[in-house]
């Protein structure tokens, strides 16, 4: 398999204060574990371009874009958009790199240059709705990439899979009435952002899991719900909201996944992608706040994507 990692140093410049868990050290922890696992020499690393505003505006209203672009504080200051979503001077640049990574990875995978790609980026995206940033997220990177695949490349059906411990409410909002997009999410429930977990359409497969659920429970749900829905949808490309805050060591969530669970989920998605989507997968980092567990989980995800185990 040919796999690449997209990232950019600008993604380290977005910071929301020393107390905030969604911190630049998350990307440094991933980088450290890639080096420890000797993946840095085996998997190509690509520089993320800035997303064009047209790409952002395929998923977000002009008002949502302006909320970020036009409220950047002076260097060293902060501008809170809500209680835990905060702009610093470099946040817009970082957000355009994060979305740009997802779009560039989509282009490369559809062009056949790569089989799949992982975007090691922040800010994350899956809580950002079409009309507003929220929940540490500014622009919805995965949703922007999916719209790029549909509207620029002309794909007819895609799937977005979200295994972050939190519900990807922003992504669900974006595609609630779009039958081209299967949104399959697993998330702790009840938990932030406290959405109704009932499926709202045939292409919105919610898998609420109770606190303390372990890998075995989650794997069974994936087998019983996600995989049949994905085979029925026959996506031509799969996007992944890869959040690792469901790791047993991550205090942000209360479920008990470990590295081997993330590798297993990834392998299931790859099998679906091989069958329906020419293997095409673009995965974007969402949550994951226990730094060592985050780095190790990304390594497990990447080793599965690159078939290095
Ligand atoms: Zn999360």
Integer count of domains: 1
Please summarize the sheet with the most strands: 8 strands, parallel
Could you tell me the strand content as a percent range? Answer: 15-25%
Task: Output the CATH homologous superfamily.
Answer: Histone deacetylase domain
Ligands in the model, by name, code or SMILES, are: zinc ion
CATH topology: Arginase, Chain A
Structural class: alpha/beta
Pfam families: Hist_deacetyl
Organism: Massilia hydrophila
Family: Belongs to the histone deacetylase family.
InterPro entries: HDACs, His_deacetylse_dom, His_deacetylse_dom_sf, Ureohydrolase_dom_sf
Describe the overall structure.
Belongs to the histone deacetylase family. This is Histone deacetylase family protein. It comes from Massilia hydrophila. Residues 20-305 form the Histone deacetylase domain. The structure is a single chain. The chain has helices spanning 25-36, 53-57, 62-69, 91-110, 141-151, 169-175, 215-233, 259-276, 291-305, and strands at residues 3-7, 44-47, 79-82, 85-87, 116-119, 158-162, 181-188, 204-209, 238-242, 281-285. The chain is an alpha/beta fold and 309 residues long. It has one domain (3-305): Arginase, Chain A, CATH 3.40.800. β1 (3-7), α1 (25-36) and β2 (44-47) form a beta-alpha-beta unit. The radius of gyration is 17 Å and the shape is globular. Strands 2-1-5-10-9-6-7-8 form an 8-stranded parallel beta sheet, sandwiched between helices. A two-stranded antiparallel ribbon has the order 3-4. α1 (25-36) crosses α9 (291-305) and α8 packs parallel to α9. Residues 164-166, 243, 245, 286-287 line the site of zinc ion (ZN).
């Amino acid at each position: 398999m040919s796999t690449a990692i997209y990232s950019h140093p600008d993604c380290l410049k977005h910071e929301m204060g020393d107390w905030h868990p969604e911190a630049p050290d998350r990307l440094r922890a991933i980088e450290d574990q890639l080096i420890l696992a000797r993946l840095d020499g085996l998997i190509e690393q690509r520089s993320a371009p800035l997303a064009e505003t047209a790409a952002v505006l395929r998923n977000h209203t002009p008002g949502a874009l302006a909320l970020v672009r036009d409220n950047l504080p002076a260097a060293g200051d902060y501008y809170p958009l809500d209680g835990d979503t905060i702009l610093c001077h470099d946040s817009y640049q970082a957000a355009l790199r994060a979305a740009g990574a997802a779009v560039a990875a989509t282009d490369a995978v559809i062009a056949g240059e790569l089989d799949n790609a992982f975007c090691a980026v922040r800010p994350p995206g899956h809580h950002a709705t079409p009309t507003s940033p929220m929940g540490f997220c500014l622009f919805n990177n995965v949703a922007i990439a999916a719209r790029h695949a549909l509207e620029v490349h002309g794909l007819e059906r895609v799937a977005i899979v979200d295994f972050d411990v939190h519900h990807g409410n922003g992504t669900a909002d974006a595609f609630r009435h779009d039958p081209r997009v299967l949104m399959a999410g697993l998330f702790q429930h009840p938990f932030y952002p406290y959405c109704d977990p009932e499926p709202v359409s045939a292409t919105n497969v919610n898998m609420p899991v109770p606190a303390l659920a372990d890998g075995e429970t989650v794997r069974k749900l994936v087998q019983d719900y996600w995989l049949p829905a994905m085979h029925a949808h026959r996506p031509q490309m799969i996007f992944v909201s890869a959040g690792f805050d469901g790791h047993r060591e991550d205090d942000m969530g209360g479920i008990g996944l470990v590295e081997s669970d993330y590798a297993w989920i990834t392998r299931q998605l790859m099998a679906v992608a091989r069958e329906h989507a020419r293997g095409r997968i673009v995965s974007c980092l969402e949550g994951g706040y226990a730094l060592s567990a985050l780095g190790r989980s990304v390594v497990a995800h990447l080793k599965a994507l690159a078939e290095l185990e």
